[in-house]
Amino acid sequence: MADDRQRYQMTASGDEIAQLRAVVQDFLRSNLPMSAVRTAGEKGTFDTRAWRSLSDSLGLTGIGIPEELGGAGHSFRELGVVLEEFGAALAPVPLLSSAVAAAAVLAGDEGEPRAALLPGLAGGRTIAAPWFGAGLVVTGEGLVHGRAGHVPDGAHADVFVLAATDPGSPDDEMLLVVDADTSGVSVQALNALDPTRPIAAVRFDGAASTVLGRGAALMERARTVQQAAVACEQVGGAARCLEMIVDYAKTRHQFGAPIGSFQAVKHRCADMLVELEAARSIAYHLRDSLADGDGEPGSAAAAAAWCSETYVHIAQETIQLHGGIGFTWEHDAHLHVRRARSDQLLYGTPRDHRRTLADLMGL
Question: pTM score, two decimals?
Fold first, then answer.
Protein backbone atom coordinates (compact mmCIF):
# COMPACT_ATOMS: atom_id res chain seq x y z
CA MET A 1 0.00 0.00 0.00
CA ALA A 2 2.75 2.48 0.89
CA ASP A 3 4.61 1.74 -2.36
CA ASP A 4 1.40 2.14 -4.36
CA ARG A 5 0.72 5.47 -2.70
CA GLN A 6 4.23 6.69 -3.44
CA ARG A 7 3.90 5.76 -7.11
CA TYR A 8 0.55 7.57 -7.24
CA GLN A 9 2.05 10.77 -5.91
CA MET A 10 5.07 10.56 -8.19
CA THR A 11 2.68 10.48 -11.14
CA ALA A 12 0.17 13.01 -9.84
CA SER A 13 2.39 15.61 -8.22
CA GLY A 14 5.92 15.26 -9.59
CA ASP A 15 9.33 14.50 -8.19
CA GLU A 16 9.59 17.58 -5.95
CA ILE A 17 6.36 16.76 -4.12
CA ALA A 18 7.46 13.14 -3.69
CA GLN A 19 10.81 14.29 -2.29
CA LEU A 20 9.11 16.64 0.14
CA ARG A 21 6.83 13.83 1.25
CA ALA A 22 9.78 11.52 1.82
CA VAL A 23 11.62 14.14 3.90
CA VAL A 24 8.54 14.74 6.07
CA GLN A 25 7.97 11.01 6.54
CA ASP A 26 11.58 10.52 7.64
CA PHE A 27 11.29 13.40 10.09
CA LEU A 28 8.10 12.02 11.60
CA ARG A 29 9.49 8.51 11.95
CA SER A 30 12.58 9.85 13.73
CA ASN A 31 11.00 12.54 15.89
CA LEU A 32 7.37 11.60 16.43
CA PRO A 33 6.93 7.82 16.61
CA MET A 34 3.69 6.58 18.12
CA SER A 35 5.36 6.31 21.53
CA ALA A 36 5.95 10.08 21.48
CA VAL A 37 2.40 10.68 20.24
CA ARG A 38 0.98 8.71 23.15
CA THR A 39 3.20 10.49 25.68
CA ALA A 40 2.08 13.90 24.45
CA GLY A 41 -1.55 12.79 24.52
CA GLU A 42 -1.25 11.57 28.11
CA LYS A 43 0.24 14.91 29.16
CA GLY A 44 -2.39 16.90 27.26
CA THR A 45 0.18 19.08 25.55
CA PHE A 46 2.24 19.15 22.37
CA ASP A 47 5.75 17.89 21.73
CA THR A 48 7.87 21.05 22.14
CA ARG A 49 11.10 19.28 21.16
CA ALA A 50 9.64 18.12 17.85
CA TRP A 51 8.12 21.56 17.27
CA ARG A 52 11.51 23.24 17.62
CA SER A 53 13.10 20.66 15.36
CA LEU A 54 10.54 20.94 12.57
CA SER A 55 10.87 24.74 12.61
CA ASP A 56 14.65 25.02 13.06
CA SER A 57 15.81 22.06 10.98
CA LEU A 58 13.17 21.81 8.24
CA GLY A 59 11.40 25.16 8.29
CA LEU A 60 8.01 23.44 8.07
CA THR A 61 6.33 25.99 10.31
CA GLY A 62 6.80 28.58 7.58
CA ILE A 63 6.33 26.45 4.50
CA GLY A 64 3.35 28.46 3.25
CA ILE A 65 4.71 31.90 4.19
CA PRO A 66 6.62 34.08 1.67
CA GLU A 67 10.38 34.27 2.01
CA GLU A 68 10.35 38.04 2.56
CA LEU A 69 8.27 37.39 5.69
CA GLY A 70 10.58 34.71 7.06
CA GLY A 71 8.99 31.65 5.49
CA ALA A 72 9.96 29.06 2.90
CA GLY A 73 7.90 30.65 0.13
CA HIS A 74 5.93 27.58 -0.96
CA SER A 75 2.28 27.32 -1.94
CA PHE A 76 -0.68 25.54 -0.38
CA ARG A 77 0.21 22.53 -2.54
CA GLU A 78 3.35 21.87 -0.50
CA LEU A 79 1.61 22.77 2.75
CA GLY A 80 -1.13 20.26 1.97
CA VAL A 81 1.45 17.49 1.51
CA VAL A 82 2.98 18.28 4.89
CA LEU A 83 -0.41 18.35 6.62
CA GLU A 84 -1.35 15.04 5.01
CA GLU A 85 1.72 13.32 6.44
CA PHE A 86 1.27 14.95 9.84
CA GLY A 87 -2.31 13.68 9.85
CA ALA A 88 -1.11 10.17 9.05
CA ALA A 89 1.32 10.32 11.99
CA LEU A 90 -1.20 11.98 14.38
CA ALA A 91 1.61 14.44 15.09
CA PRO A 92 0.94 16.20 18.43
CA VAL A 93 2.11 19.65 17.33
CA PRO A 94 0.07 22.78 16.51
CA LEU A 95 1.04 22.86 12.82
CA LEU A 96 -2.54 22.78 11.51
CA SER A 97 -3.63 25.70 13.68
CA SER A 98 -0.64 27.91 12.98
CA ALA A 99 -0.69 27.10 9.25
CA VAL A 100 -4.38 27.96 8.91
CA ALA A 101 -3.90 31.17 10.87
CA ALA A 102 -0.94 32.16 8.70
CA ALA A 103 -2.85 31.49 5.49
CA ALA A 104 -5.74 33.62 6.73
CA VAL A 105 -3.38 36.45 7.66
CA LEU A 106 -1.81 36.28 4.20
CA ALA A 107 -5.24 36.67 2.65
CA GLY A 108 -5.79 39.89 4.65
CA ASP A 109 -4.46 43.37 4.12
CA GLU A 110 -0.79 44.02 3.61
CA GLY A 111 0.75 46.27 6.20
CA GLU A 112 2.49 46.49 9.52
CA PRO A 113 0.26 44.04 11.49
CA ARG A 114 0.80 41.29 8.93
CA ALA A 115 4.52 41.98 8.67
CA ALA A 116 4.84 41.92 12.47
CA LEU A 117 2.95 38.64 12.93
CA LEU A 118 4.07 36.33 10.14
CA PRO A 119 7.85 36.08 10.83
CA GLY A 120 7.12 34.70 14.30
CA LEU A 121 4.71 32.14 12.86
CA ALA A 122 7.21 31.20 10.15
CA GLY A 123 9.96 30.57 12.69
CA GLY A 124 7.76 28.63 15.10
CA ARG A 125 8.38 31.21 17.84
CA THR A 126 4.72 32.19 17.79
CA ILE A 127 1.84 29.69 17.96
CA ALA A 128 -1.46 30.90 16.57
CA ALA A 129 -4.93 29.46 17.07
CA PRO A 130 -7.64 30.42 14.54
CA TRP A 131 -11.35 30.82 15.23
CA PHE A 132 -13.59 31.63 12.29
CA GLY A 133 -16.90 30.69 13.89
CA ALA A 134 -19.78 32.94 14.95
CA GLY A 135 -20.30 34.71 18.24
CA LEU A 136 -17.54 37.31 18.46
CA VAL A 137 -18.25 41.02 18.12
CA VAL A 138 -15.96 44.03 18.19
CA THR A 139 -16.78 47.53 19.39
CA GLY A 140 -15.65 50.74 17.78
CA GLU A 141 -12.60 50.82 20.03
CA GLY A 142 -11.40 47.50 18.62
CA LEU A 143 -12.35 45.55 21.74
CA VAL A 144 -13.45 41.94 21.21
CA HIS A 145 -16.36 40.43 23.14
CA GLY A 146 -17.73 36.89 23.09
CA ARG A 147 -16.77 33.27 23.48
CA ALA A 148 -15.01 30.87 21.12
CA GLY A 149 -16.32 27.50 22.26
CA HIS A 150 -13.74 25.00 20.99
CA VAL A 151 -10.41 26.31 19.78
CA PRO A 152 -7.82 23.68 18.80
CA ASP A 153 -4.44 24.39 20.43
CA GLY A 154 -6.01 27.38 22.18
CA ALA A 155 -4.48 26.52 25.55
CA HIS A 156 -0.91 27.07 24.34
CA ALA A 157 -1.50 29.72 21.68
CA ASP A 158 0.43 32.99 21.79
CA VAL A 159 -2.06 34.77 19.54
CA PHE A 160 -5.60 34.20 18.32
CA VAL A 161 -6.62 34.95 14.73
CA LEU A 162 -10.35 35.57 14.84
CA ALA A 163 -13.43 36.32 12.79
CA ALA A 164 -15.70 38.96 14.33
CA THR A 165 -18.49 41.31 13.35
CA ASP A 166 -19.32 44.91 14.22
CA PRO A 167 -22.77 45.16 15.88
CA GLY A 168 -23.36 48.33 13.89
CA SER A 169 -22.74 46.53 10.59
CA PRO A 170 -23.00 42.76 11.21
CA ASP A 171 -22.59 41.98 7.51
CA ASP A 172 -19.07 43.39 7.60
CA GLU A 173 -16.94 40.55 8.94
CA MET A 174 -13.39 41.29 9.92
CA LEU A 175 -10.24 39.33 10.63
CA LEU A 176 -8.54 40.23 13.91
CA VAL A 177 -5.50 39.21 15.90
CA VAL A 178 -5.53 39.19 19.70
CA ASP A 179 -2.53 38.44 21.91
CA ALA A 180 -3.22 35.62 24.37
CA ASP A 181 -1.75 37.58 27.28
CA THR A 182 -3.90 40.66 26.63
CA SER A 183 -6.23 41.82 29.38
CA GLY A 184 -9.72 40.47 28.85
CA VAL A 185 -8.66 37.08 27.47
CA SER A 186 -9.37 33.95 29.52
CA VAL A 187 -8.56 30.45 28.34
CA GLN A 188 -10.06 27.24 29.73
CA ALA A 189 -8.60 23.90 28.64
CA LEU A 190 -11.31 21.34 27.83
CA ASN A 191 -11.37 17.56 27.97
CA ALA A 192 -10.74 16.60 24.36
CA LEU A 193 -11.89 13.44 22.59
CA ASP A 194 -8.60 13.50 20.68
CA PRO A 195 -5.75 13.61 23.22
CA THR A 196 -3.24 14.56 20.50
CA ARG A 197 -5.02 17.86 19.76
CA PRO A 198 -5.87 19.88 22.90
CA ILE A 199 -9.05 21.98 22.78
CA ALA A 200 -9.81 25.14 24.76
CA ALA A 201 -12.69 27.54 25.27
CA VAL A 202 -11.58 31.15 25.00
CA ARG A 203 -13.54 34.10 26.35
CA PHE A 204 -12.95 37.69 25.25
CA ASP A 205 -14.19 40.43 27.58
CA GLY A 206 -13.14 43.65 25.92
CA ALA A 207 -9.79 42.32 24.67
CA ALA A 208 -7.76 44.71 22.53
CA SER A 209 -7.32 43.60 18.92
CA THR A 210 -5.67 44.56 15.66
CA VAL A 211 -7.59 44.42 12.38
CA LEU A 212 -5.97 42.31 9.66
CA GLY A 213 -8.66 42.73 7.03
CA ARG A 214 -12.37 43.16 6.37
CA GLY A 215 -15.08 41.74 4.19
CA ALA A 216 -17.02 38.56 3.49
CA ALA A 217 -14.62 37.55 0.71
CA LEU A 218 -11.69 37.52 3.12
CA MET A 219 -13.49 35.36 5.67
CA GLU A 220 -14.75 33.06 2.94
CA ARG A 221 -11.15 32.55 1.89
CA ALA A 222 -10.05 31.92 5.48
CA ARG A 223 -12.74 29.27 6.00
CA THR A 224 -11.92 27.62 2.68
CA VAL A 225 -8.26 27.33 3.70
CA GLN A 226 -9.31 25.94 7.06
CA GLN A 227 -11.46 23.22 5.51
CA ALA A 228 -8.79 22.36 2.94
CA ALA A 229 -6.14 21.95 5.64
CA VAL A 230 -8.31 19.59 7.69
CA ALA A 231 -9.26 17.62 4.55
CA CYS A 232 -5.57 17.03 3.79
CA GLU A 233 -5.02 15.80 7.33
CA GLN A 234 -8.01 13.48 7.08
CA VAL A 235 -6.77 11.94 3.85
CA GLY A 236 -3.44 11.22 5.50
CA GLY A 237 -5.08 9.65 8.54
CA ALA A 238 -7.42 7.51 6.43
CA ALA A 239 -4.52 6.34 4.25
CA ARG A 240 -2.52 5.31 7.32
CA CYS A 241 -5.50 3.35 8.68
CA LEU A 242 -5.94 1.48 5.41
CA GLU A 243 -2.20 0.66 5.37
CA MET A 244 -2.57 -0.77 8.88
CA ILE A 245 -5.51 -2.91 7.76
CA VAL A 246 -3.74 -4.28 4.68
CA ASP A 247 -0.54 -5.03 6.60
CA TYR A 248 -2.50 -6.87 9.29
CA ALA A 249 -4.57 -8.79 6.73
CA LYS A 250 -1.34 -10.09 5.18
CA THR A 251 0.11 -11.37 8.46
CA ARG A 252 -2.92 -12.49 10.51
CA HIS A 253 -3.75 -16.12 9.75
CA GLN A 254 -6.97 -18.02 10.35
CA PHE A 255 -7.77 -21.53 9.15
CA GLY A 256 -4.27 -21.77 7.78
CA ALA A 257 -4.48 -18.75 5.50
CA PRO A 258 -3.98 -14.96 5.82
CA ILE A 259 -7.29 -13.22 6.44
CA GLY A 260 -6.52 -10.96 3.49
CA SER A 261 -7.22 -13.95 1.23
CA PHE A 262 -10.84 -14.11 2.40
CA GLN A 263 -13.30 -12.60 -0.03
CA ALA A 264 -15.20 -10.62 2.60
CA VAL A 265 -12.00 -8.90 3.79
CA LYS A 266 -10.87 -8.25 0.22
CA HIS A 267 -14.17 -6.57 -0.64
CA ARG A 268 -14.10 -4.35 2.43
CA CYS A 269 -10.54 -3.26 1.68
CA ALA A 270 -11.43 -2.57 -1.95
CA ASP A 271 -14.42 -0.46 -0.93
CA MET A 272 -12.26 1.53 1.46
CA LEU A 273 -9.65 2.11 -1.22
CA VAL A 274 -12.32 3.51 -3.54
CA GLU A 275 -13.52 5.85 -0.77
CA LEU A 276 -9.97 6.93 -0.01
CA GLU A 277 -9.08 7.66 -3.63
CA ALA A 278 -12.23 9.75 -3.99
CA ALA A 279 -11.36 11.69 -0.83
CA ARG A 280 -7.79 12.13 -2.04
CA SER A 281 -8.98 13.47 -5.41
CA ILE A 282 -11.36 15.97 -3.78
CA ALA A 283 -8.76 17.16 -1.28
CA TYR A 284 -6.01 17.44 -3.90
CA HIS A 285 -8.28 19.40 -6.24
CA LEU A 286 -9.02 21.89 -3.47
CA ARG A 287 -5.38 21.99 -2.36
CA ASP A 288 -4.11 22.68 -5.86
CA SER A 289 -6.80 25.25 -6.64
CA LEU A 290 -5.80 27.19 -3.52
CA ALA A 291 -2.18 26.99 -4.63
CA ASP A 292 -3.23 28.49 -7.96
CA GLY A 293 -5.09 31.35 -6.28
CA ASP A 294 -8.62 29.97 -6.58
CA GLY A 295 -10.33 27.66 -4.09
CA GLU A 296 -14.11 27.76 -4.31
CA PRO A 297 -16.29 27.45 -1.18
CA GLY A 298 -18.24 24.69 -2.94
CA SER A 299 -15.11 22.58 -3.35
CA ALA A 300 -14.24 23.22 0.29
CA ALA A 301 -17.67 22.14 1.50
CA ALA A 302 -17.53 18.97 -0.63
CA ALA A 303 -14.06 18.11 0.67
CA ALA A 304 -15.05 18.79 4.27
CA ALA A 305 -18.06 16.48 4.06
CA TRP A 306 -16.53 13.60 2.09
CA CYS A 307 -13.06 13.50 3.65
CA SER A 308 -14.36 13.60 7.21
CA GLU A 309 -16.81 10.74 6.67
CA THR A 310 -14.20 8.70 4.81
CA TYR A 311 -11.72 9.03 7.67
CA VAL A 312 -14.32 8.07 10.27
CA HIS A 313 -15.43 5.02 8.29
CA ILE A 314 -11.93 3.71 7.57
CA ALA A 315 -10.79 4.37 11.16
CA GLN A 316 -13.74 2.38 12.50
CA GLU A 317 -13.05 -0.43 10.03
CA THR A 318 -9.46 -0.48 11.29
CA ILE A 319 -10.71 -1.51 14.72
CA GLN A 320 -13.20 -4.03 13.34
CA LEU A 321 -10.80 -5.78 10.99
CA HIS A 322 -8.07 -6.01 13.61
CA GLY A 323 -10.42 -8.12 15.71
CA GLY A 324 -9.74 -8.46 19.43
CA ILE A 325 -6.43 -6.61 19.37
CA GLY A 326 -8.08 -3.63 17.71
CA PHE A 327 -10.29 -3.10 20.75
CA THR A 328 -7.38 -2.76 23.18
CA TRP A 329 -6.19 0.65 24.33
CA GLU A 330 -2.65 -0.28 23.34
CA HIS A 331 -3.52 -0.34 19.63
CA ASP A 332 -3.06 2.79 17.50
CA ALA A 333 -6.48 2.35 15.89
CA HIS A 334 -8.13 4.01 18.89
CA LEU A 335 -6.15 7.20 18.41
CA HIS A 336 -7.17 7.39 14.77
CA VAL A 337 -10.85 6.91 15.63
CA ARG A 338 -10.59 9.71 18.17
CA ARG A 339 -8.85 12.02 15.69
CA ALA A 340 -11.36 11.15 12.95
CA ARG A 341 -14.37 11.84 15.16
CA SER A 342 -12.84 15.02 16.53
CA ASP A 343 -11.96 16.35 13.08
CA GLN A 344 -15.44 15.54 11.81
CA LEU A 345 -16.89 18.06 14.27
CA LEU A 346 -14.00 20.51 14.32
CA TYR A 347 -15.36 23.19 11.98
CA GLY A 348 -18.91 22.02 11.30
CA THR A 349 -20.55 18.65 10.71
CA PRO A 350 -20.82 16.88 7.32
CA ARG A 351 -24.50 17.84 7.34
CA ASP A 352 -23.54 21.51 7.75
CA HIS A 353 -21.13 21.25 4.83
CA ARG A 354 -23.72 19.57 2.61
CA ARG A 355 -26.19 22.31 3.45
CA THR A 356 -23.58 24.90 2.47
CA LEU A 357 -22.95 23.10 -0.80
CA ALA A 358 -26.69 22.86 -1.53
CA ASP A 359 -27.12 26.59 -0.87
CA LEU A 360 -24.24 27.42 -3.20
CA MET A 361 -25.82 25.26 -5.89
CA GLY A 362 -29.21 26.90 -5.37
CA LEU A 363 -30.87 23.66 -4.29
Answer: 0.90
